[in-house]
Amino acid sequence: MPNNIENALRDLISLLQVIKLYTAMHPRFNKFLDKAYESLRGVLINRQEVIIGIVGDEFVFEKEIFFEFSKTAKSTISYLKARGVEKIIFSGALQKEELAKFVGFLAGDSDKEEVKKNPQEALYLSGVRNITLGKLNSAGAVDSLSVAANKSISYLSLYESSLDQVTDSLDGVLGEQDLNYLPLRFAINNIAENMAVKYNEILKLITLKRYDTGTFIHLLNVSILSMYFSTKLGFSKEDVLDIGTAALFHDIGKIYISRKIIKKTDKLTEDEFKNMRSHSLLGARLLLKHTETLGVLPLIVAFEHHMRQDAKSYPKLSFSCIPHIASIIVSICDVYDALAQRRSYKADYPPNVIYDLINKEKERFFQPQMVSKFFSIMGVWPVGSVVTLNGGRVAIVREQNENDIFLPKVEIMYPPSRKGHMDLHQSQGEDRIESFVNPLRQGKGYLSMV
Amino acid sequence: MPINKEELLAEFLKSFKIAVNGALLYTKSHPFFMRYIEDLKRKIDPLFDFLNPLKVVITPNSLVIDDKTFSKTSWYDELVKILHRRKIKSIEFKRGITGQELVVLLDRISLPPLEILKQGGVDRIFSRNDNTHFTIEELDYSSLLIDKEGEGFNEAWFSLVESSINHNETRKINEFADNFQIIVAKIKINDLVTDERLRKSMSDFMNYLKVNQKEKFNKCCQELLESALKYRGELDEAQLLSLQSFFIGLDEKDLANVLWNKLSLDDDFGPVGLRLFSQLAGKDKHKTIVSTVFDKARDISPASGASRIKEKIEKLFSASDNIHIPEIYQNMLSALRENSSLEDKIAFDRDQVDRNYRFILLNLIIEEKDDGALSMLLEKVMEDWDTIIANRDFEYLKNLIEVSRRKTSENPDCRRIFKKIDDRIGSFLEAAVFEQPFNQSIKPLIESIEKSSAGYDFYLEKIFNDKKVNQQALSLFFRLFPGDLERFRNKLEQNRADIDLLVNMIEDLKHVDSLVSLDVLKYLFYSCNEYIKIEALRAMQECSNFDKEFLFSIITRENNALKKEALQVIMRDQEMLKEALQMLFDIPNSFGRSNGVIIERISLVEEIELKEASAFLAGFSRKMFFWNRALRLKAREVLRKWNAE
Ligand SMILES: [Fe+2]
Ligand SMILES: [Fe+2]
């Protein structure tokens, strides 16, 4: 039985992902709907109802907890939890149309007023009788779909579940296995959608997570930054998702190499350094086997992300072309994130130094106007940075000011007497940021407040 | 004997061209010419069963008969040019046309264009004759105006417009209006303000349109203004005023239109032009003009070159310091500079994704050392083959050829892996070389072909069965199969009656211009009729290689027409010419026995104005004795003519 139910769950998740990514009009949807309905019917054949729960980060059915399976479904679990769904009950008389309406409902806009107020009623009103949503400990329906009480935890779990998905996918490519595209795209889609509503929350996570030295954090950070950047440039959702997906793979060649030469704490030798620089070529070569599933953009970005404007780019090209805008976006976000990250062979730089460094090099490396665009969007001091203001105050950057990249909106934390929000731009030069507080050293105490 | 209309038409045109050429070549009593006329008569008569009258319309680059356009090859080009230069718009043949009428027609057509104009155009020279079975129509006056260049233009414009307006010839005036942009480009603005007659006729024309055709008036008036704004000189108050009067009828929208066109399209539009615009537009209209220009700038799409316009405006702005431009236009410029809609929009380009992917494949191929991975990469390139071809991406093909060359020279074992793609490229190019019109961008690619993928018979098939012959195809064929022309010659032999094919081929051989092509020309000379012989010799006149022995055999053995052509090849080499003249004139001639031959040869050099023969002629002109009288006189006559020129 658990096997059956696991298959049904898997098909259900795929169905949800398909409708999110392709909409119900897509011919693919009907194929997946048929399959999911078949599996569910198979489970329902001998029973009145099937109750699926989410406990912690795991799917649960009766006494069974699907530990292994839940690992591969993290994005979906966090997606459901974000919508307050902890329990789904399928009744024996389930119709295919109901299933279609149900996933459509889950994929739809949960911000609508009537849905928020009473999701179960909304589901019922849309004609679904044989599927009920609920909270785990209550017999009744979910009373609010609004995001879980502790928002930052919800975003953190979104970030972490996405990170797991990214790790899985990259491991797939590195291990020369087939790549499961649907969940990866779903994870990226999840981030992009949340970013549209609460971009500051997500950006803050990047600032925070940078101090985690995990290999894949950089990739996810670059992906998120690239998606944010391209959203602000006015790109369509599909383009944004494509860029976000491509960004995840930009350093695949580097990871491939670094798995071969063990991590060094000293400076890399000349030879190894050369090796590290050819990772763009190697990355493209690795991704060539996955163009069927991933498309060609990840390959292009992997190949082009170290191309330079002054034609001295590496890899040295026999046949040159102008880098694609996706590569330019990723390359800026890449350098930005790499400079901020602490590495075994280099220090982490404070944001104002990063700004100067990138600007000094912008003629050489990037399209200069894209660099200014980037900082006009990101600001000099990223959201979530801990900074000192004149007069010995300590504050956290909360939001950017579009017309002044040096003066964001901040929340003052110290001294306690002056706690509160302030727009540095409004204060006409009286208040300004003096320095950056490294959260790993002096700033440790503030980390929890961020 | 062809029986359908199309074949008859083709036959007729072929014969007509040969006859026209014959008329240019021979006098009307020459037996060759008469033969052409007979042939033409034979070809035209059965056509009247399908088309009576048979009307041949001549456009600047094609012939039109019965709504069908004939422009496919250089074959018609020459005929079209000959007729068009003589301002013939159409020729209409009617059933019952006699050989004698054809002689008259062709004889007159063959007059030099200038002579025809001197006699008052084709209309005149034919109206005096009773040509009941053919009619010639002269080109329109408006076309005359459009074609006319330089000096006589103002005169022509003046007389044509005044007479059209006076006679209320709406059709003609419409034609002027429709072609006004071309016409107005030829009017000098300076003339418009100084030449009273021109000014009056222009304002008559504009007023006529304004009253009768408001829309055309708007169009022409804007075009006149655009043209006027090109003027760089200084205008005094009165001149400005008189110029201004032309544009009073334009409203703010029209004026803004003109200004925007200038700003966005005309690279030469500078501060002087902007000042002139502000002077001509009228003070009260400035405000609306400027705001309309803003609307246009806002609506511009990035695809239409927004960044280029911005650059232009930037340039115009920085150059406008020393020239007084009204403040409102100064402000307009500086505001346009700030306008963000003129900035390059950053966009996600899906086509570029595919393009870059293909380029990366090339780079990966170059770097790849592993055979298996190399095969996979080439496989990926092949997946995109149809797109590459559909996009006519010859640049990419060139790179692909380069990659293949580099990889196989690095490691000859690779040849096996590249074979499939090499063959695919080769076959594509060898087929593309026969496409019409020939695509110039594949030229460098064709030069890189080292061996044929399509094979010898493919070429014979294309050239002789599909009749798709062109210069590039021929020279590629000669290059890929050197010294293997036997079967090609046999095919030529079989097709010797196909004048169309041969004439086209000769034209192409002329451009191939190699020793092989010279051989083929010689072969054609020996195996074909008089007409082809002449065409072959004419082609040789433009080739850099020549065969002295061959040419000398002609000037001693063949008829005068051929001699004349051969001499024109010879005269391009001074040494050879000297020798040839020696051979023609330095012949044993005791008691003037050869005088007849010599006189004939003098006529020959006279006809082609071969003044290098002067020394011999001078010798003849001093010959004594009565039996040399005719020779003496002929030589003197020619020398006198040459000296007078
Ligand atoms: Fe990299
Ligand atoms: Fe990177």
Specify the structural class of chain B.
mainly alpha
Structural class of chain A: alpha+beta
Q: How many helical elements of chain B? A: 37
Number of helices of chain A: 19
| 3D shape of chain A | globular
Tally of strands of chain B: 5
Indicate the proportion of strand residues of chain A: 5-15%
Uncertain runs of chain A: 138-153
Main sheet specs of chain B: 5 strands, antiparallel
Write up what this structure looks like.
The complex is a heterodimer of chains A (450) and B (645). Chain A is an alpha+beta fold and 450 residues long. Chain A folds into 3 domains: 2-153, no CATH class; 177-378, Hypothetical protein af1432; 386-449, no CATH class. Chain A has 19 helices and 10 strands. Chain A has helices spanning 2-22, 27-44, 67-72, 74-82, 96-107, 113-117, 119-125, 151-174, 181-209, 215-232, 237-248, 252-258, 270-277, 279-287, 291-294, 297-304, 325-340, 351-365, 368-378, and strands at 49-55, 58-61, 64-65, 87-91, 131-134, 386-389, 393-399, 409-414, 420-423, 433-436. In chain A, a hairpin with a 2-residue loop joins β1 (49-55) and β2 (58-61). In chain A, α10 (215-232) packs antiparallel against α11 and α11 (237-248) crosses α16 (297-304). Chain A is globular and about 70 Å long. Chain B has 645 residues and is mostly helical. Chain B folds into 5 domains: 5-139, no CATH class; 153-338; 349-448, no CATH class; 455-545; 576-645, no CATH class. Helix content of chain B is 67%, strand content 4%. Chain B is built from 37 helices and 5 strands. In chain B, strands 3-2-1-4-5 form a 5-stranded antiparallel beta sheet. In chain B, β2 and β3 form a beta hairpin. In chain B, α1 runs antiparallel to α2. Chain B is globular. Chain A binds chain B through residues 230, 233-236, 239, 242-243, 281, 284-285, 288, 291, 296-297, 299-300, 303-304, 315, 317-326, 370, 373, and chain B through 346-349, 352-357, 359-360, 362-364, 366-368, 373, 376-377, 380, 399, 403. The complex binds fe (ii) ion (2 copies).
